[in-house]
């Protein structure tokens, strides 16, 4: 148990850290699955979706509204949240995807920035926050707890972590073994040639948009419960932690993205008990991403991008 | 336009040639002079709250100028310019409370310190690709926001953070303005002059060696590399210049508000700033002025003057950004004159049809 010795150096024992590790793994799970959703879409369409967090936040707000202002069953709200992510992402992909297809990755990214701003504006307009008012989106799974190695764990935290791992496994297998997955990888290599080979490029891309959007909706549903309150600005900038995970995975490797997301989540949670740095722990994605970039840029690479703007 | 009069008949011809050669420059000079005259003397007469807004417009046009150069000239994107602005504001406030330096010196030092921090943030990402720089600046924006919430702006205390929990409320310490520009109107004029100087610096860059190197990098990085352009150095130079501008703007902003608060800077402002920069136009320096108006004047008009929900502006920026990216890459600075010219031609044709004259364009 090296870790016990390491923690004991700081005068903190292993028991003390257990709840923070649980929280960190759950948060990291959401970051990781968001990162995987972002990487898959980037690989398939070349679009780095900056609106990922905003889509999840909007879905969560809709679910909140359905639970608190209608008498509809709660499961419908949860399904709507996830489906909203898929539908909005798909709509953007269908409408703007082809128009941006031949453009530079930076321009594609800026397009999603437009979507993020529109969603942010809508949310700030229709669901303003102010004063001590806070929204909560509790999931039924949070009320069921059990203990693992003496630490309290609730089912939402388990779902977050298991979903992230399952998503990574399933997506990897999907890309490797199915025809659609092969088409994704072909488009990632060269969209034009793939199209000439008879792959319905737009339909394949649409499926990527839809799938990635569903993941965005799921992240938006899980995160408010883990962070205790539904704050759409915080949810929108979930994309920063997710992008850090994606960057650690070089925008390429799903497994490294998963590990990166978990690392970011753990780093954020484990610094919480230290009074001197607890305020700065949200900067963990930035620090980890900078370290990853320094590692990546240790050799000089000439980047050749298409200069179409 | 120094035409030395030579004896003989060709004097007039030479003068005419010189004039026709420089007509574009002359028109531009006149336009700039007229714009500055209006900005300096006509705009402050509208009203006090308008003057404050125009001060913000001038300050923000300095930041959007940096962003515009970064994207329009080099092809780089910074999603964290507000973070650099915050660093500028913080540095200026700290310098102000710690030292008795004169305002221009505070301005310069804030710019230089922000520039150094910007280079530190940008260096690892710039060596990779534009996409990486965009991402790392976005994360820097988040991180700076976190630090800002933790330490807030200095308010006259001691130590590194310069913040005391028991500020001297009787004196209400504020960041000093330059002694020649204490009042709002005078300070507005001061800001416009500083902004004009920064624009001049930008123009000199674009028209000389860095500008040519940036153009080469933007068109093709491998070709620029093959032609002997130090790609990383010139990219970093552009990023440093943009950071410097953000720092200067931050110092101006610190003196404008007097007591900056952490709540007035949000991470999402970086995104809106980028959107307005593109909407304003990135291939022309005028675009930065338009962008400054969009980011500060438009919310003022919507909220204070017309009573709209200010968040409506965000939706407008998002839609505008998509529209600019897809149909008008030059932004309003290029698109608006073009559209006006087309409209003029249409109107002229219409007049021709009605009167039977002047139908030709």
- Biggest sheet: strand arrangement of chain A: 1-2
Evaluate the radius of gyration of chain A: 20 Å
Number of helices of chain B: 14
Unreliable parts of chain B = 1-6
Uncertain segments of chain A: 1-9
Using the alpha-carbon principal axes, give the shape of chain B.
Answer: globular
Number of domains of chain A: 1
Q: Estimate percent helicity of chain B.
A: over 70%
What name does CATH use for the topology of chain A?
Answer: ABC transporter involved in vitamin B12 uptake, BtuC
Would you give the CATH topology of chain B?
ABC transporter involved in vitamin B12 uptake, BtuC
The gyration radius over C-alpha positions of chain B equals 23 Å
Helix and strand succession of chain B? HHHHHHHHHHHHHH
- Percent of residues in helices of chain A comes to over 70%
What is the succession of H and E elements of chain A?
HHHHHEEHHHHHHHH
Overall mean pLDDT of chain A:
83
Structural class of chain A: mainly alpha
Q: What's the number of extended β-strand segments of chain A? A: 2
Biggest protein-protein contact in the assembly: A-B, 55 and 54 residues
Report on this model:
The complex is a heterodimer of chains A (309) and B (361). By secondary structure, chain A is an all-alpha fold. Chain A has a single domain, classed as ABC transporter involved in vitamin B12 uptake, BtuC (Orthogonal Bundle). In chain A, helix 3 runs antiparallel to helix 4, helix 7 crosses helix 9 and helix 11 packs across helix 12. Chain A is globular and about 60 Å long. Chain B is globular and about 80 Å long. The N terminus of chain B is likely disordered. With 361 residues, chain B is mostly helical. Chain B has a single domain, classed as ABC transporter involved in vitamin B12 uptake, BtuC (Orthogonal Bundle). Chain B is 73% helix and 0% strand. At the A-B interface, helix 4, helix 5, helix 11 and helix 13 of A face helix 6, helix 9, helix 11 and helix 13 of B.
């Amino acid at each position: 148990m090296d870790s016990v010795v390491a923690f004991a150096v700081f005068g903190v024992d292993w028991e003390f850290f257990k709840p923070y590790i649980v929280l960190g793994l759950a948060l990291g799970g959401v970051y990781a699955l968001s990162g995987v959703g972002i990487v898959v879409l980037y690989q398939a369409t070349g679009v780095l979706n900056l609106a990922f967090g905003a889509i999840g936040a909007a879905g969560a707000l809709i679910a909140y509204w359905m639970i608190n202002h209608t008498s509809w069953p709660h499961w419908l709200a949860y399904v709507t949240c996830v489906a909203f992510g898929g539908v909005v992402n798909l709509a953007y992909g269908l409408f703007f995807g082809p128009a941006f297809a031949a453009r530079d990755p930076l321009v594609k990214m800026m397009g999603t920035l437009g979507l993020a701003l529109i969603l942010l504006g809508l949310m700030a307009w229709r669901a303003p926050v102010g004063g001590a008012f806070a929204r909560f989106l509790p999931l039924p799974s949070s009320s069921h707890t059990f203990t693992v190695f003496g630490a309290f764990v609730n089912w939402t935290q388990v779902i977050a972590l298991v979903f992230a791992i399952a998503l990574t496994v399933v997506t990897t297998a999907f890309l490797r073994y199915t025809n659609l997955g092969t088409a994704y990888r072909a488009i990632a290599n060269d969209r034009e040639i793939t199209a000439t080979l008879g792959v319905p490029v737009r339909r394949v891309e649409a499926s990527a948009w839809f799938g990635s959007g569903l993941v965005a909706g799921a992240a938006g549903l899980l995160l408010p419960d883990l962070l205790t309150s539904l704050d759409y600005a915080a949810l929108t900038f979930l994309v920063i932690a997710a992008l850090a995970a994606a960057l650690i995975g070089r925008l390429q490797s799903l497994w490294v993205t998963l590990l990166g997301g978990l690392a970011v989540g753990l780093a954020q949670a484990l610094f919480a008990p230290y009074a001197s740095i607890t305020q700065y722990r949200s900067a963990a994605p930035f620090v980890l991403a900078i370290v990853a970039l320094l590692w990546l840029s240790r050799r000089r690479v000439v980047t050749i991008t298409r200069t179409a703007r | 336009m120094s035409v030395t009069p030579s004896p003989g008949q060709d004097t007039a011809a030479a003068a005419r040639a010189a004039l026709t050669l420089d007509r574009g420059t002359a028109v531009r000079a006149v336009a700039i002079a007229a714009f500055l005259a209006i900005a300096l003397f006509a705009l402050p007469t509208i009203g006090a709250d308008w003057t404050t807004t125009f001060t913000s417009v001038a300050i923000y046009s300095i930041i959007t100028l940096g962003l515009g150069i970064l994207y329009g000239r080099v092809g780089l994107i910074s999603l964290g310019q507000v973070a650099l602005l915050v660093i500028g504001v913080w540095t200026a406030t700290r310098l102000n409370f710690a030292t008795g330096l004169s305002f221009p010196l505070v301005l310069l030092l804030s710019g230089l310190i922000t520039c150094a921090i910007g280079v530190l943030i940008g260096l690892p990402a710039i060596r990779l690709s534009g996409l990486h720089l965009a991402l790392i600046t976005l994360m820097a924006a988040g991180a700076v926001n976190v630090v800002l919430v933790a330490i807030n702006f200095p308010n006259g205390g001691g130590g590194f953070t310069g913040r005391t929990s028991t500020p001297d409320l009787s004196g209400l310490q504020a960041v000093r303005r330059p002694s020649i520009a204490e009042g709002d109107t005078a300070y507005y004029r001061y800001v416009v002059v500083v902004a004009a100087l920064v624009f001049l610096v930008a123009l000199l860059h674009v028209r000389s060696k860095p500008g040519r190197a940036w153009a080469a990098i933007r068109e093709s990085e491998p070709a620029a590399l093959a032609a002997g352009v130090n790609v990383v150095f010139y990219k970093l130079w552009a990023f440093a210049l943009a950071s410097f501008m953000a720092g200067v703007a931050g110092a101006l902003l610190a003196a404008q508000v007097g007591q900056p608060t952490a709540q007035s800077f949000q991470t999402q402002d970086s995104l809106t700033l980028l959107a307005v920069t593109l909407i304003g136009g990135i291939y022309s320096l005028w675009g930065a002025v338009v962008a400054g108006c969009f980011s500060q004047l438009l919310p003022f008009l919507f909220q204070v003057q017309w009573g709209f929900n200010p968040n409506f502006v965000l939706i407008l920026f998002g839609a505008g950004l998509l529209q600019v990216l897809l149909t008008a890459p030059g932004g309003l600075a290029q698109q608006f004159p073009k559209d006006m010219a087309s409209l003029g031609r249409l109107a002229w044709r219409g007049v021709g049809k009605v009167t039977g004259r002047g139908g030709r364009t």
